[in-house]
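Hi there,

I know you've been waiting on this one. I reran it after we fixed the sequence typo, so this is the corrected version. Both the input and the resulting structure follow.
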Amino acid sequence: METKRTKGMVESDISKALTQWEKEYLGRGSVQVKTHILQHMILVSLKGVLSPAEKELTKTEAGMLSIKKIRSELIETGSLQLKELISQLTGCEVESFHTDISTRTGERMIVFVLMENLEKQLTE
């Protein structure tokens, strides 16, 4: 008999997988990851994503803009891998992907918009 995965289990699996992806792709993982499934969206909050050197750079406006640009480009180059990872973990196709980073708090937010209502599937 197959055990049905709960919403919490899927959220935990996504958090673990994203941390692993960060370590492999970016060379380091975030300090804390929290994932929330909300209808057809997956919201991921990653805290502690900046390295000590990047934190130092964010003390100037030019440095802050540079870090935002580089981090954005790094995530965009890996977006296909991220979409595939989410599809594998959820069984849902990713329609779109959005992200931003706060150079003040060192937090990145990622939103995956899915083609179907994953929350409804997991709570039925």
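Quick highlight: The first strand starts at residue 32 and ends at 38.

Best,
R. S.
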